[in-house]
Amino acid sequence: MPRARTIAELKRESYRSVSVKDEMRANLIRCLGSGGPMFPGIVGFEDTVIPQIANAILSRHNFILLGLRGQAKSRILRSLVTLLDEEIPFIAGCEINDDPLKPICRACNERIAELGDGTPIAYLPREQRYVEKLATPDVTIADIIGDLDPIKAARGGHALSSELTIHYGLLPRANRGIFAINELPDLAGKIQVGLFNIMQEGDVQIKGYPVRLPLDVALVFTANPEDYTARGKIITPLKDRMGSEVRTHYPTNIEHAMTITSQEAWIERNPAVRPVIMPFLREVIETIAFEARQEKKVDKRSGVSQRMPITCLENVLSNAERRALVNKEDLVVPRFSDIYAALPSMTGKFELEYEGELKGADSVAREIIRQATARVFKKHFDGVPMHGIVQWFELGGTLKYPDGAPVAEVYGELKKIQGLLDKIQPLGVKSKDNPALQVAAGEFVLEGLYALRKISRNEELGYHLEHRHPEPVPQEEEGPVRKRRPLN
Description:
Blueprint: H1 7-12, H2 20-34, H3 49-58, E1 63-66, H4 73-79, E2 87-91, H5 106-115, E3 121-125, E4 130-134, H6 141-144, E5 146-148, H7 150-156, E6 166-168, H8 170-173, E7 177-182, H9 189-200, E8 203-206, E9 209-212, E10 217-223, H10 227-230, H11 236-240, E11 244-247, H12 254-264, E12 274-275, H13 279-294, H14 307-326, E13 331-332, H15 337-341, H16 354-359, H17 361-381, H18 387-394, H19 407-415, H20 435-451, E14 456-458, E15 462-464
Parallel strand pairs: 1-10, 1-11, 4-7, 7-10, 12-13
Antiparallel strand pairs: 2-3, 5-6, 8-9, 14-15
Helix pairs in contact: 12-13, 12-14, 13-14, 13-17, 17-20, 19-20
């Protein structure tokens, strides 16, 4: 059936105007009724954040997402587009997507007065109904609301006070859609005042000329709670006009975190070289982020973004990929040493407290890796005896090989260690598996023993055992024997 092309044809189809919040509410009700996911790709918020957002939409609220960096706030806002209709009709050529049955701009009203029901209409896809702006201190009221356009006034012969001379800003252009502002506290106070006036009254003032614009917009915002005092604040009248305040959080368990990282990281790369990332290595990478969020040397107010394990995994795979290409190997299997090669992808993802600044980001990151390794190692090898491996080092054994060593060389070195490759079964690796998998598992066992301080490791000697001399027993001082005084 052909779509309506004029207002008259639209009326014959019994089209009914619906506000954007009612439209989102109706589509959400259908989504909940069908049992489908509200935000595909958002993991770990099913029982916390998503129900609160659903309540805000069902209540037709403007809302704000509060959370530290890397908590999927922007992604959630962009996913709200799925709650809009696939397309809506609007008056063709209108800058603010006017409803054909309820126009608000003067240009459209004059056009309808001239053409009547023959006024042409067009259709706006839902992807174009989402407008997003990152708040920065240099954003002006003209960027958000609009400004007078002298050229438009001169060409049309209009007075500057005429509404026909306005060049509309981002907010009016989001009419009948969703307008999102990221990092709201960075927006100047006077701009925030303009926002709440639109939300409450539908009035704007441009260069001193009052203009009535009863916009149909769903306003959504994001903010970092710590930014309120660090860079700016949300003015009280604007905050009061937000219907709901939803707080986001980091993944609460390793499984959710691994799902997010696998979903977001760039893993499928060179079709000629097949990557195999062992599950225990993924666990360590995710646990690094969890440990960093608890580390006292890391600033908890700044947070540790979920982007850290994503970029870390990508760097780990890149280091393994580079090694495989140099050694002409057809299987890319990252080893534990690749995590240390990925330090540049971690140190920029957290802010340090004073004590951490004294030690340095690199040292703090290495200590966090050690803590994460110990945690994962205990999970897989709790109760598994490792005396034979430690004894090999006690007898003077050392193991050192370059980071870029091929699989065959490292495999031969690991086989020299008594019982090492017999202990890797808890990691899901068997003796008949590809040597590259056995090398990755064997290196993790050694790193786990190092993390638990059973063996040592440094750049000069590699894996070894430091012989600690027992502390001398203090001798009693010679001298006259003194009688002890009896206790009362």
